[in-house]
Each structure stands twice: as C-alpha cells, then as structure tokens.
Amino acid sequence: MKQFLVILVLLFSLNACDDGDLEVKNIDFEDVVATKCSGDKDVIYKIKDTEMLLIEIPADIFENDETPEGEPIEVNISSTVKVKYRQYNGAVSVDNICPAIPDATPSLLEEWNALAGTIEITSTAIKTTDATTGATKITGYKHYIVFKNITFEKPGGTQVYSSFVFGNYNTTATALSFGFDEEVAKSSCDNRLFNFNGSEVLTLDTDEYATLFVNEVTTEPRTALISSTNKLTYSLYGSVVNDAFFCTTPNPTIPAQLWIAEDGVDNVSGIIEVTTIQQLVGVFQHTIRLKKVTMKKGNSDFYLGDNYLFGTLLTN
After folding, report:
1. pTM across the whole model
2. Which member of 187, 202, 207, 307 has the greatest number of CB atoms within 10 A?
3. CA–CA dist 62, 64 (Å, integer)
4. How confident is the model at residue 109 (pLDDT cuts 50, 70, 90)?
C-alpha cells in the first residue's frame, strides 16, 4: 500500500511540472516601459520576458493635454478598443506584434482577451526647468493607464480585476522653439506687437499702447498687467506667418497651437514692463520684458520665466 501511495505522489509531481499545461494565475506589468507600434497600427504594448500585454486603441485618445485632477479620460473596452495578454514559449520581442506578418517564433502558448471593462487615462505634462530663469518647457505627456472592472476570457474560464494597473505610456509634445529675435514689429493695421519666428509668433495686444510706449526716456519702467485688455498669446502655425497674414480678416488659417497668458496679479505675476532709451535723435527704443508669465492651453501650462525678453520696439 505504501509503495502505491509513493507512485501516486510521483505521478502527481510529474504532471504538475508539465510545461504543456501552462496556467497563469496573475499578471503584473506596472513597472515595464510601454511602447507604441510605429505606423498606422495604434497598438501600445509592454513586454516582460515571455509575456506581452497590449492595448489596441485610437491614437487620438491620448491628447497632448493634462487631465483635470480626479477626472481621467474613460474609454470602454469594445470591438475597436481591445486589451490582450499573451504568453509565449520563449523570449518575445516587438517583431511578434508590430509587423504586418509577425515572427513565427516564439510560439504563442496562451492568450487572454478582455471582454469588458473601462480604460482610465490620467495625463500629466513632462517638463524641464531652466535653473537660471525658472522657465519651463513641456517635452511630452505621461499617460497613466488603469483598467477598471476588466474581465479577461482565458482558456478554461474568466479572470476579473476590479483595478489593474497597466502603468505609464509617454508621448512626445511638439517642440516650441521660442527662437525669437529681439526686434519687435508693430502691426500695420492696429496696435498689436509681433515677434515672429517662421511659423510661430508671440503677440502682445494692448489697449495701453499709448501710455506704455511714450517717446520719453524712462527713469522707472512703465508697467501693466496681462488682462483682457492686455493680451499675450503664443501661436504656432503650419507655415510662415507675417504682418500681412494677421492683417487679413479673417486670418487664412487657424493656429495648430494657441497658448494664452494667464491674467497678472499686481506685483506678483503677469507683469508687462517697458523701459525706454533714446537711440538717435527722434528715435526711441522700447525694451519690453514679461515678468513671471505663465502660458496656458487647455489644462496644460508652461512658465516663460522670471524675466522674459519679449523684444525691442523702435518708434519715432
């Protein structure tokens, strides 16, 4: 009888180690870097040794903007928004998911398909800061992805997670060069001031032009606050723009990006400062500086710095 029990234990142990009967109890990809397939295939994936977790989702879901606190983007899993988990019999690579014809090896051992659930996306801007000026620049966006109440169909049944963390997926923001010259141009059709750099323009539209730009040497800077009557905007277009473009009504195209300066607070932020010197007889140079100005678009913002040179304007 004892010999019979020993044989049963040995048989059970052999069956438990059978690689052909793979059973995955849990999956965890939170600390793995997410990547997107290049080209038209909107697939975000994570690879960990022999495992892969992927999301097929329209790319425009990931807007380059921050989400309000506590208000993530919510997308329902469906026939067009898919989540899959895969287990292979060897180390897996991008060639198993992104090509039109995936590599034949390693072989797929097991696949889970999400039947239902919600994808929650919380987006925050990735910024760099200039240590000298304090100016910030947005270089990309971090999208934190969590699956809520997700149900996977897997061999032999289903697996449900009330909350499953996919983790971060980063996108790159369009670089704003801000390579402006010092020279500012006054509009030929109104009192707007422009600083052009190819397809980008920084615009100061002020109702206080007559008091800010007086042809007299200053002993103290003339100041005004950014407001509904002193508007500062940054616009990025798809082609070169100039004064004639902005004096056409309506403008021929709309900007690809439009950032608007936040209203100023007296002695704290959003300050326009003008100093004037006499350059030649009858010619005056006005230097315009922007103090502690924040530019905003949607829910995102960046800081121009403690003391940003808008440019110089010559008048006579």
Report:
1. 0.86
2. 202
3. 6
4. very high
